[in-house]
Amino acid sequence: MNEYKRENATLEARIEEIQKRSTYHDDHIRIADAWVLQLLQEIELLCEGTVSTHPNSKEFPYPSALSFKDSRDFQKHIGEKTKLVKTRLETLLNRLSGFREAIKPEVVQMESQIKHLLAAQKDYALKLERLETDKDDISQQLDTATLRYIKAEKRIDRMRSAQVQKMEEKALAHVTARPAPAENGNADQPAANSASLDALQGKYDESLAVINKQKEQLDKILGEIKTLQDENTTFRSKKEAATEEDYARTDLFKQVRSQNEDMIRRTNHLESANKQLREEIEKLQTDRTAFRTKLDAEAQSVANDLEDQIQAKDQDLTRIRSARDELVADVQIRKACQDQERTAFEHLNELVAAKEDRIAALESELGRLRPTEGADTTTPSAELEALSPEALRERFAKLEKDFILIQSEMPSVEKAYKKAIGLAQKKVMDFSALEERVTMLTLEKAKADQKYFAARKDMDIRIAEIRALRHQNSKSSEIIASLKDAEAQSRSVLSNFEKQLADFRQANTTIAEESRQLKATNADVARRLESSKAQIAELANLVKQKDAANAAMREQGANQETEHEKIKVRLTHVQKDRDSWKSKCLANSSEEEEMLRKFALCSVCRHNFKNAIIKTCGHVFCQTCIDARLSNRMRKCPSCNKAFDKMDVIIKDKSTKQDTADQSDDPDVVDYSNGTDPSCNANQLENGALRKKRSDQSREPQTLRQVSLMRRTSLRRQCLALHAALVLCAL
Q1: Which segment, 72-76, 363-367, 440-444, is predicted with the most confidence on average?
Q2: How many other C-beta atoms can be found within 10 angstroms of the C-beta atom of residue 552?
Q3: For position 651, what pLDDT does the model report?
Q4: Per-residue exposure over 262-274, b if at least 16 CB sit within 10 Å of its own CB, e if not
Q5: Residue 618 — left, alpha, or beta (φ > 0 → left; ψ -120 to 50 → alpha)?
Q6: What CA–CA distance (Å, rounded) separates 614 from 151?
Q7: What's the pLDDT score for residue 297?
Q8: H/E element holding 598?
Q9: Spatial separation of the C-alpha atoms in residues 730 and 678, rounded to whole Å
C-alpha cells in the first residue's frame, strides 16, 4: 500500500510538471500564432490602409493541431501563413513605391498606435485563451471529483445495505462462536476460549468504534463537499449571469462614468470652440482659393507665352539645322573635288617630268642622228672596201663619237622608259581603282536611292502621324480645357476635403487627449491590477499553506479521533477487567492484604490513594482531603496537628516527568506500566499519576526534593509490595 502511495505521489508530481510544461508550450504556440496574425495585420494595414482580419473570426482560430510537433495540420497551417505573408509582402512592395511618399507623420503615428492596440488585443486574447483552458481543466477536475464522490456514495450505500450487514453478522458469529467442549478435553479449555473470545471481542469493539468514527467523518466530509458544491454552483451562476447592475455597482464603472461625464463636458466646450474655428477656417479657405485662382491664371498666361516662344524657337532651330546640313554637304563635296584635283595635278607634274626626260632623250637622239654637213652616211660595203685608211679612220672616229653619244643617251632613255612604264602601270591601277570605285558608288547610289525612297516613305508616314498628332493635339487641348474645369472642381472638392481634414485633425486631437487619459487610467488600473494580482498570489499561497496545514490537521485529527475511540474501547475493557479482578481480589483477600490496602489508602477518607505530601511534617494524604481542609481553613495536619500552608503541599502528579529519570536510576523501582496482567491497571494508573506529578519538582529546593524523593521511593516500594500481593492473590 505504501508502495502504491509512493508511486501515486511520483505520478502526481510528474503530471503536475507535464501540465506546467504543456501550459508553457501552449502559451508559446499562442504567442507565435498571435505574432503571425499581428504581422499579417500590420502588412495589410500598410498595403490597404484597413484591417480585414479579426482575431474573433473563424479565419484565424487557435487550432488544436498546433499542440503536436509532427502534425500535417500544423505544417499545412504554417504553409498557409507563409503564403499569406508572401502575398501581402508582394502587394506591399508593389504599392509602397507609389503610396509611401504621400503618407504623413500623423498617419504613421496613428499606425503605430494601431499596432500597439493590436498587440495589446493579442495579449488580452492570449490571457483569455489561457483562462479558458484553465477553466476547462478545473471543470474536468470537478467532473472527476464528482465521479469519485458518486462512486464513494455508491460504496457507502453498498456498505449500508441489509445484505452486507447480514453477511458481516454471519462472519462475526462464525468467528466468535465457541466450539463444543470435548468429553475428554482439558479442564483449562473453557478459560482459554473465554480469554480469546474477550480479546476478539475487544478487537471487534475497537474496529467497530473506528468504523463508526470514520463513518461520522465521512458524513461530515460529504456534508462539507455538498456545501462547497452549492457554493461553487452559486458562484458560477453569479459569474455567468452577471447583470449590468452588478457592473454598475463596481468602483471601476463609477470611475469610468465620472471620466465619461468629464469627457462629455470637455467635448461640449471643444465643440463650441470648434465652431468658431471652423468659421475662421472657412474665411481663410475662401481667401486662399481666390489667391490660388489668381496665381493659376497668371501662371497659365505665362505658360502660354513660353509655349509660343518655344514653338517659334523650334521652327528656327529646324530651319538652321536644315541649312547647316546643306552647307556641310557642299563642303564635303568641295573637299572631295579638291582631293581629286590635287591627285590629278600630281599626276600631271609627274607626266611633265617624264615628258621633259623624253624630250632630252629625243634631243640627244636627234643630235646623234643628225648627219654631218656634206657627208653621206649610207655608203655601201663596196665603197668601204674602196675607202682608204684615212677615210676609214675618219669614219671610225665618227662612229666612235656616235657610240659615245649613244652611251650617254642610254641612261636617260632607260630612266624615261622606267618612268613611262611606272606611270602607265599607275594609270592602269588608278583606272582599275576608279572602276571599282564607280561600281561601289553605283551600289551606294542604289542603296542611297533605297534609303531615300524609304526616308520619303517614312517622311510620308511621319507627315500622316504629324497630321494625326495635330488632330489629337486639338482634341487634347479640348480635353485639357475640360481637365482644367475638372481641376477647378477638384480644387473646390479639395478645399472641402481640407476643411474636413481640419475637422478630423481637431477630432483626432480630442481623441488623442482622451486616449492619453485612458492610457493614464489604464496604467493606473494596470498598477492596481498588478498589486491586486500580487496580493491575490500572496493570499493564494497563504490559503494553500493554510489548506495544507488544515488538511494535515484534519488528517491528524481524524487519526487522533480513531485512536481516541480505540483507547476508549480499550479503557472500557480495562475497567471491566479491573472491576472483575478487584472483586476477585476482595473475595480472596487476607488480613495482610487488607492491611497493605489500608496503608496505601488515605487515612482520612479511606477511599483515595495517598498522593499529596505535607513538607512540614512529612505525612502523606490524598489531594482531595488536603484541598478540603485548605478550603475549610483547617490548615493543620490530621495526624500531628502541625500547621501547614498551600505552598507546603507537594502533589505527586506534578512531579512525574522529573522522576522518570530518577526511576530509571533507582534499582529498586520496577516499571509495570506496560505489563500484560490486567491486575496491575490500578498500579499503572497510580504510577502514571506519580510520574505526572514529578514535573514540578524542579521548582522545589534541593533538600525538599531529596526528602520527597525518599518518601516517594518508600511509598513506591509499598505499592510494589501491594501489587505483588495482588498478583499472588490472583494466582
Answers
A1: 440-444
A2: 10
A3: 80
A4: ebeeeeeebeeeb
A5: left
A6: 65
A7: 83
A8: helix 591-600
A9: 10
